[in-house]
Every structure is written in C-alpha cells, then in structure tokens.
Design goal:
The protein is of the alpha/beta class. The protein is built from twelve helices and twelve strands. It has a nine-stranded mixed beta sheet with strand order 5-12-11-10-9-8-1-6-7, with helices on both faces. Strands 3-2-4 form a three-stranded mixed beta sheet, with no helix packed on it. It is globular. The relative contact order is 0.13.
C-alpha cells in the first residue's frame, strides 16, 4: 500500500498539473483552487480517501458546486468539504466527468468534411451524445462562418466560436450525416433534469458563454435525441457499428475518452478499430496514444489535444473546442 506521503505527493503533482496546463488561462478560479488543494492537508486527505479514478480535479470541484454552489475561494472550499464530506463523497462516487462539450464539434469538423459524404457517425464515450450532432450546429472560425441549419426561433442552435490557424482546411458546408449512434457506460438522459444539470456543472466557472451554448445544444438535441447504447465501448463497438448503413462512410470517433480506459482495453480498442472498415478520428491528449504522438516532429503542447485520422496526427485542438491548429 502506498504511504500517505506518497499519495499526497502524487495528488499535489496532479492538481498542480491541472492548474498549470488545463485551468490556466481558462478558469482563474479553478487554477487558484487547484493550487490551493496542493497545499491543503485537509483537502488532500479527503481526496486521497477517494478511489484513484475519482480524484480528478474537475470531478471533485463539480461535485462541490452541484451540491453547495461555486466556492468563492480556497477557505470556502475547505469549509464546504469539512462540513459536508459524506454528501460530496457520495456524489463523486455516483458521477463521472462525462464532459459532453459540443463545442468540440468545431475542431472535428475540418476532418469530417474531408471524408466522402454522407457520414455514419459512431462516437465511443458519447455521454449524452451532443457531439453526434455536428450537422445541427453553427460554427464561427473567424474567416469562415457556417450558419446552423435553422434559426429564428426560441430554440436557435448554438454557433460555436473556434480560432483556426491559416493552414486549417475549413469546410464550406455542414457535413451530411445519414446515421449516428453512441456508446457509453452510463449514458446521460437529456430528458432528465438532474443529468442535464450535472452537464452544466461540468462547465468551468467564468465560462457563461460556453454554458449557454451547452444549454442551446441540449435544447436542439432534445427534439431528436441521438441514440446512445449503454455498455463498454470495446465490447459494444462491433455490434453497434454493424447497424450503420453500408452506403455511408463509417466514422468511429472519440474525444478525451481513452484516458479513462485501462491500457490493455485502450490497446484492444485501437486494434479493433484498425480492423474495421471505418475511418478512425481520435481527439485525445498526446500522451494517451504515444504511437501517434511519436509521429510528431516536435514535443506536443501540454495544454492541447491531438487530433488524428486513421492514426496520423493532423492538428492540435483546444480541449473545449476553442481552437484548431492544423499540422502542415
């Protein structure tokens, strides 16, 4: 069993890494809280008692926010955890991050638009399935703007802003999607108020524009929810893929998902996708798939995801869909 000092050291490193490479420049409050956790023995002790898979900063912070509101500062966070450890622990154990950020569609779109249309989209780790709807949203890349398919009513689709490098091959139209499906261990129900409230809580503080776009995406998805099959993404992959229409280009994709798989399951998934008659689009942290990152000419940035198509790196992307920088 790992000694307490070793557990605390590991957690300090994890929370400081989150502060430096994920929250910095994105959420000042989360950056301050994460740095504070690294120096707070009561908080480290509380988090250390959680299962390793449940010690993520975003999960712990979101559970506190969902139950008791957003902490003002570190002393407020310490107070809330000290007064309500059991309800917070119970929610952390019941939930997972499942950050279903539809803005990531903006970073996937340049890759999807280059494929033979129409598409059959199969997302693994789909959460509520919001990223299965790239044809129902609008996009603003600055020099190119794609209007959503319908507008002018109370339930207007969101328009996702995304900074795109000059080298990025921006599409001039929305993709044609003939079929879509997702797989998730615990699909979130868009008709369930508690599930959608959890999705909103996973949006970081100070990001009200992002939260409003999420709410708009949820409203659009509720009109015709994408089917998400409950189950293990490795075990269900072939059976769900077999239901896709043969006349469409099957695209198996995922974004910030494989990190949560054990290494053996991750490797099995990669082998399975390679054996399928499908295009594989991956949008993950570079460290998650080192065989793809090894093809990069230089060290990848620590705060970006790596977009790849069939195992070939094509772009660095913002983790919440805020940017795409194409590799030339």
């Amino acid at each position: 069993m790992e000694e307490p000092d070793g557990v605390f050291a590991r957690l300090r490193a994890r929370y400081l890494n989150f502060a430096r490479h994920e929250a910095r420049g994105v959420s000042p409050l989360y950056e301050r809280l994460a740095r504070g956790v690294a120096e707070s023995e009561p908080l480290l002790r509380f988090i250390a008692a959680l299962p390793a898979a449940k010690q993520q900063p975003n999960l712990v912070f979101a559970a506190v926010r969902r139950l008791y509101g957003t902490p003002r500062d570190l002393p407020h966070l310490v107070e809330l955890v000290g007064r309500h450890p059991e309800p917070i622990r119970a929610l952390v154990l019941r939930r997972s991050t499942q950050t279903n950020e539809p803005g990531r569609c903006a970073t996937l779109l340049p890759a999807l638009a280059r494929l033979p249309q129409p598409l059959a989209l199969l997302e693994v780790g789909a959460s509520a399935g919001l990223c299965l709807l790239p044809d129902r949203y609008g996009y603003d890349y600055g020099r190119v703007r794609l209007a959503p398919p319908r507008a002018g009513g109370p339930d207007d689709p969101p328009v996702f802003p995304c900074r795109a490098s000059e080298a990025t091959p921006l599409p001039d139209r929305l993709p044609a999607v003939a079929w879509r499906a997702g797989i998730d261990l615990n699909p979130l129900d868009l008709a369930d108020e508690d599930d959608t409230a959890w999705l909103e809580t996973l949006v970081w503080p100070e990001q009200e524009d992002r939260a409003e776009r999420l709410r708009a995406a949820i409203r659009i998805a509720r009109a015709s929810p994408p089917p998400v099959v409950r189950g293990d993404l490795v075990e269900k992959l072939r059976s769900v893929a077999a239901t896709a229409p043969r006349e469409a280009t099957l695209v198996v994709f995922h974004t910030a998902v494989l990190l949560y798989l054990p290494s053996e399951a991750r490797e099995r998934f990669v082998r399975m996708v390679a054996e399928m008659d499908a295009v594989w689009v991956s949008n993950e942290s570079p460290a998650v798939l080192p065989s793809i990152a090894a093809k990069l000419p230089a060290e990848p940035p620590a705060d970006r995801l790596l977009l790849s198509v069939d195992g070939e790196p094509v772009a660095f992307t913002g983790p919440h869909g805020q940017s795409v920088d194409w590799l030339t």
